[in-house]
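We both want to read discrete structure tokens more fluently, so let's practise on a single case. Would you supply a protein for us yourself, any chain you care to pick? Would you write everything just below, so we can both look at the same thing?
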Amino acid sequence: MATEDVKLIGSWASVYVMRARIALHLKSISYEFLQETYGSKSELLLKSNPVHKKMPVLIHADKPVCESNIIVHYIDEAWNSSGPSILPSHPYDRAIARFWAAYIDDQWFISVRSILTAQGDEEKKAAIAQVEERTKLLEKAFNDCSQGKPFFNGDHIGYLDIALGSFLGWWRVVELDANHKFLDETKTPSLVKWAERFCDDPAVKPIMPEITKLAEFARKLFPKPQA
């Protein structure tokens, strides 16, 4: 597939953009990465996603596809003969993967982000406790879905791995901000090992943001109130 046939509008720091990039890398698809600047929106982005006006947007043969999980699904179907299958093959397994992906976006990540935006120690403590509780659910989900294999999807990275794994860089940043470790070998041993395997995968390692760079970006995005 020629690079000019596939473009991705996004930003290096966005977890949602990373989902699309990982899927493209898994399928060995060449693409042009059109980086947006935070705080402004390009004419191409507004034209390609006039409803939500958000990244990522995948442009394939001049046709835009929006929303990260939809893009991952599209990539899996559009290039179904290239690379491993991203979505599980069984309908029930696909439904379970979609369920937990929605949980990650709609509940788990909201709790994680609230740590960075918490006002005061008590609010931060409550947010940390909620993240711990919800992360334990993801530990159980991993054990149920993986059935003893390396990834949620089994032997290789799949839909649910991408949904959660795209957050790992930001997760480390939040751990630093909260001075609290959420991926812990005593509490979440399976997720700890999974995270190591995920970050070391050839489709992920080259595009996983550096934590120091991401932490600096987070300080600008979530400035602390002056004392």
The first strand starts at residue 6 and ends at 10. The radius of gyration is 18 Å. The mean pLDDT is 94. Residues 91-117 form the longest helix (27 residues).
